């Protein structure tokens, strides 16, 4: 099978070279791989790294460098879809790492009769420090991230979503491009449309790639906020592509607001009940995570870290939902002018 491998990057000069090295180490025949390197108007050396890679002979059938002038992630994905020539396309984030069998195992699933394949997405860190290890624990925990099957399931199954999946050409031909109105949550929308078109998403735990965890609390909180924010706004575009679990942090934030108002009005019982349950849960999860690992003082901050992640995500969803009606109206007005 002739496949296309796409990387969409913006200011990834620090992480892109390592991913390109991973690509060169793939044990799938290079002459059956087309590489598309798409730069989203970076201001660092990302474009030059792509050009240098394209100029080298790494044995690939074709290496193409392309620009994404609209900069957003879904626009970059669509550049790949418009230009790839393979029988299947897989795209990988620039801040990821892939083992040497990544392409081969995806192809094996597709050649077994599936239309879409994907696998596990463990998180990793670079230049480990105790604090980065603590951030990694929070990101890996179901309590701090999500219950998505692409994070932790150990059995082969059909999933509701895939992260950086490989899709046969037929899928994109039928389903179309990514929704460019969604700078985030575009994968939720796409995988929902793929399933609505009658295709199944095959999750195989033997397929694995690694996602680099944010290296600072500030960047991690910003990531969670923006994830929640675009879930709120995307509800005005495709409310069907989310599950109730996406709104648990939002429900938590609304619970904080509601119980606080009730407490100020002289009815503190619900506040005590909610906070008591949350504190017991967050302490239980944190203790479980701490005792499983060598002791580190920074791990004692896990309860606070979990709380901040939940609030950031929930506040983002709240703000997104509040802005959503005005944003959708603006978008629709723009489409008809």
Query: How many runs of DSSP E, i.e. beta strands?
Result: 11
Gyration radius, to the nearest Å? 21 Å
The percentage of residues in β strands lies in 5-15%
> How far is it from the N-terminal to the C-terminal residue, by CA?
44 Å
* Structural class by helix and strand composition: alpha/beta
The tally of domains stands at 2
What overall geometry do the principal axes of the alpha carbons give?
Answer: globular
Average pLDDT figure? 93
Q: Major beta sheet, specifics?
A: 8 strands, mixed
> What's the number of helices?
12
What would CATH call the class of the largest domain? Alpha Beta
- The percent of residues in helical segments reads 40-55%
CATH topology of the largest domain: Spore Coat Polysaccharide Biosynthesis Protein SpsA, Chain A
CATH-derived architecture of the largest domain: Alpha-Beta Complex
Query: Segments where pLDDT lies below 50 for 5+ residues?
Result: none
The named CATH superfamily of the largest domain: Spore Coat Polysaccharide Biosynthesis Protein SpsA, Chain A
Enumerate the strands of the largest sheet in spatial order, edge to edge or round the barrel: 3-2-1-4-9-6-10-8
Q: N-to-C SSE series?
A: EHEHEHEEHEEHHEEHHEEHHHH
């Amino acid at each position: 099978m002739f496949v296309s491998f796409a990387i969409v990057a913006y200011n990834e000069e620090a992480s892109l070279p390592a991913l390109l090295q991973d690509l060169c180490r793939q044990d799938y025949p290079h002459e059956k791989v087309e590489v598309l390197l798409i730069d989203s108007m970076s201001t660092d050396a990302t474009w030059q790294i792509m050009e240098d890679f394209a100029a080298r002979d790494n044995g690939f059938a074709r290496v193409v460098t392309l620009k994404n002038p609209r900069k957003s992630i879904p626009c970059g994905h669509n550049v790949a879809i418009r230009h790839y020539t393979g029988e299947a396309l897989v795209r990988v984030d620039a801040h990821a790492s892939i083992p040497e069998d990544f392409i081969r195992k995806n192809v094996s699933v597709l050649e077994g009769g599936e239309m879409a394949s994907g696998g596990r997405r463990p998180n990793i860190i670079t230049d480990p420090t105790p604090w980065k290890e603590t951030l990694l624990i929070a990101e890996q925990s179901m309590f701090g991230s999500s219950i998505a099957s692409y994070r932790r399931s150990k059995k082969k199954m059909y999933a509701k979503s895939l992260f950086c999946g490989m899709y046969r050409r037929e899928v994109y031909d039928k389903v179309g491009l990514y929704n460019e109105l969604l700078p985030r949550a575009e994968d939720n929308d796409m995988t929902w449309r793929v399933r609505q078109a009658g295709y199944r998403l095959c999750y195989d735990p033997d397929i694995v790639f690694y996602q680099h965890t944010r290296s600072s609390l500030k960047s991690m909180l910003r990531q969670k906020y923006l994830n929640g924010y675009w879930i709120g706004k995307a509800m005005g575009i495709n409310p069907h592509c989310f599950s109730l679990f996406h709104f648990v942090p939002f429900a938590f934030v609304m619970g904080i607001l509601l119980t606080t108002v009730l407490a100020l009005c002289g009815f503190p019982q619900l506040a005590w009940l909610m906070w008591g349950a949350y504190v017991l849960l967050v302490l239980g999860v944190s203790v479980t995570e701490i005792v499983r690992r060598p002791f580190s003082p920074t791990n004692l901050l896990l309860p606070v870290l979990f709380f901040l992640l939940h609030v950031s995500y929930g506040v983002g969803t709240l703000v997104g939902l509040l802005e959503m009606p005005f944003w959708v109206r603006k978008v629709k007005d723009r489409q008809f002018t």
